[in-house]
Amino acid sequence: MPSSLCQTFQPILLVLLSLRLSTTLPPHNQHSTLAFGGPKGSASMRGWFQTCARRGMSDGNVHPTMMAVADEAFNVAPMMKHTHKHWRYFFKLLSRRSVVYSEMIPATKLVEEPERAYEEYLSHSSEEYPLVVQLGGREEEVLGQAAKIVRASGKFSSLNFNCGCPSDTVAAQFRGGAQLMMEPHHVAACCRAMRDEGVDVSVKCRTGVEHLKDSSLNDGSEVFTYDELARFIDIVAREGQVKNFVIHARKAILGIGTIDNRMIPPLDYQRVCRLAEDFPEIRFVLNGGLTNVESCKELLSTTKLHGVMVGRQIINHPWSWARVDEEIYQEEPKIKTREMVLQEYIEYVRKEKKKFLEMDLSEAQMQNNTRIMVAPVYNLFNGEACCSQWRRQLLTMLKHGVSADTIISSSMEGLPGQVLSLSQYEFVPDHLIPKYDKAKVSVSQLTSQIV
């Protein structure tokens, strides 16, 4: 077909493609992971800012360098051992406009070992913007110092303060995360300390927090009511000058574990949407339970929410989110295929490999870096008949000590060309993919057995 006719009929072809869904049934979902290995050593605060100046990230002084607040219509949640820089780069090949978050970074780590923490947490590329850095902690002074380091480290969109993590370590042992929702005045003070460094600050929290023994899971009586949630938002917004909140639409139940907290407390979208009604001057992003682009579009079009946030579903089925730019940000359709994405990612991996070879890394650290660069593509073919073959080949080649780019490119060779050339509109919907709960193990668990 002549190129002029292709251009003429491209919109029609895109519509037809959007109506086609692959119908093959797959094996189970599994998760990617991260294991970082970086240079040893630490640096003083002064030494760190001198390092920033040498790298061209800052002149050594703290002054406005942050980007304007990003368009937060679609956000990728901060996930430990998942949203590292390699995964973020990979997902930006699927959706350039999405706002991506770092893993939660302990503020104390940044302050005590800024050089090492930079390599582990803050190292990034400009292709990842808009990028939000999430900090965890509870000490005002430490959070302020950490904010200063973040600001000197790149043009991040903003800082996000973690007030929603329900893990026993974070919430119980260190009195951070979701535990902070019981201390709104202290949260406001922490946010002020970070804002004093000239950084835009948002807060990620739950719709409430309860201890298991007092929880509504026991007798149905509600301890943390909507009024308590509204009070928390009001105090943090006024005293902490916070105008952006990300709300996980579940309560945190302290004492039942992190994984159970993503499943057992019921979703309460109505409570989050009510916040958006009652606080029109504040921007609210809803997180939790969103499984496809359509559900995100519906929430954005029928409520006063400013954005949505998706987490594990993107890790498990990334290709089903490759049309976010067209569907949510309403950009002009631009066809991409998994083959195109993989080729671009392989080029990125080769550049990263050169950097690693210049570093004095142990063999174990090199193996870890290989695993973390392979992990983002592990679920790229979820739902397709060739998914098991793809995963098996990746894991098998990880045994042999070859580089990540070789593993990915060699694993591509055995895949059907028809699947590689499917567009972002062609995928198996999540509800058609069988779930095998007992088989849900992460890539880290799998690769640790074979490397």
From TrEMBL:
SUPFAM superfamilies registered for this protein in UniProt: FMN-linked oxidoreductases (SSF51395)
Gene3D superfamilies linked: Aldolase class I
Keyword Cell inner membrane: no
Keyword NADP: yes
GO molecular function: flavin adenine dinucleotide binding; tRNA binding; tRNA dihydrouridine synthase activity
Keywords: Flavoprotein, FMN, NADP, Oxidoreductase, RNA-binding, Signal, tRNA processing, tRNA-binding
Secretion signal, residue range per the UniProt entry: 1-24
Residues in DUS-like FMN-binding domain copies: 76-394
InterPro entries, per database record: Aldolase_TIM (IPR013785), DUS-like_FMN-bd (IPR035587), DusA (IPR004653), tRNA_hU_synthase_CS (IPR018517)
Necessary cofactors: FMN
Pfam families according to UniProt: Dus
Domain of life: Eukaryota
Protein name per Swiss-Prot or TrEMBL: DUS-like FMN-binding domain-containing protein
